[in-house]
Amino acid sequence: MGFERKRIAEMHGYVPGKQPASADTLKLNTNENPYPPAPEVLSALTAIAPDALRRYPPPSADGLRARAAHVHGVASENVVAVNGGDELLRLALTTFVEPGAPIGVVEPSYSLYPVLAQVHGSDVVRADAPADFSLPSGLAAQMARAGVQLLLIVNPHAPSGQLASARELDALAASFPGVLLIDEAYVDFVDPELGHDLVPLIAKHENVLLLRTFSKGYSLAGLRVGYGLGASSLIAPMLWKTRDSYNLDAIAQRLAEAALVRRDYSAETWRKVRAERARVSAALRALGYRVPASQTNFVLAEVPAGRDAAALQRELEAGGILVRYFAAPRLDRSLRITIGTPEQNDRLLAALAGCRS
Predict the structure, then answer these.
(1) Integer Cα distance of 63 and 313 in angstroms
(2) How far is residue 115 CA from its own chain's centroid?
(3) What pLDDT score was predicted for residue 1?
């Protein structure tokens, strides 16, 4: 007999994407940005003095919070810096959900949400998304009836790439009585002409918490840094009560701040990814795949009739190409494919054209 809690003993942990077996493996399964971070980020890394490592980092990451606040036109009091976006998810659960009270998700969704709920002792209330992966009707009422205290929405949606509008989320926030956490991990890749911006919602709704990460758009997945945006009344208890002491190390703070200073550099990588997203989507459709429009740095490709998605994923892996397969309802006929560089995408498309699975 072990010592873990009963709920922990019964649960399954989060399953991350497979790591490459060699340097020649093409890694299109974990949604990293295919381009390197800004040169200024690397300059900031080499400029870190020994004392920065000997001493504790700024406890509340004031410099990074101020820079993020400037980017979004809000106050520092509206920002909490976190050790990757996943820490904000855990903070939201710890801060706003009574142990045992349920959380809400729209299925399919980020598979870490139910794992965190199980750790917290919370049940998960699930609402099935329609066929087009949009927000289900009556969502706020369903969650309110179930006593949900925290509703988690990925937007743009993963794994489909579907984008819910600010108007839809504004209405959801107004009618949902709990905290609405909108996970914007992929928002940097949204087409600019859509004018999509949810930041004004944090001034309008005290219950809206936005998650931002440097992992995708800023090419810093290996650094583990992100931040949350919300009303000061929502941010304060996380910032001053439930956040781990010194939760964000000195290196992460300085490099993330440098990335925000050169946001224009990262924005150019977003443009490149969007262009390749359009090209890859069109090429996949020409091969017979069904590919919904995506506003992320990946596409969800449903395999042609008569093909086996799981077998195709294994065949690609045997050829040195990693893509993501989910053995789950509504997803088990699809592959989620991260958008790479033009050369990487050409290799993927050539491999798919020659696959037999």
Answers:
(1) 43
(2) 15
(3) 57
Q: Could you tell me if 97 and 219 are in contact, meaning their C-beta atoms sit under 8 angstroms apart?
A: no
pLDDT at 291: 97
Tens digit of each residue's pLDDT (9 = 90 or more) over 159-210: 999 999 999 999 999 999 999 999 999 999 999 999 999 999 999 999 999 9
d(CA 77, CA 234): 10
pTM of the model: 0.95
User: Do residues 31 and 170 share a domain?
Assistant: no
CB environment 305-324: b (16+ within 10 A), e (fewer)? eeeebeebbebbbeeebbbb
Q: What CATH number is associated with residue 290?
A: 3.90.1150.10
C-alpha to C-alpha distances, 201 to 21, 74, 284, nearest whole angstrom: 43, 12, 36
Residues 113 and 139 in one domain: yes
CATH number at residue 134: 3.40.640.10
| Amino acid (1-letter code) at residue 55 | R
Is residue 100 included in any domain, yes or no? yes
Reading the block at residue 1, the tokens are 């007999």
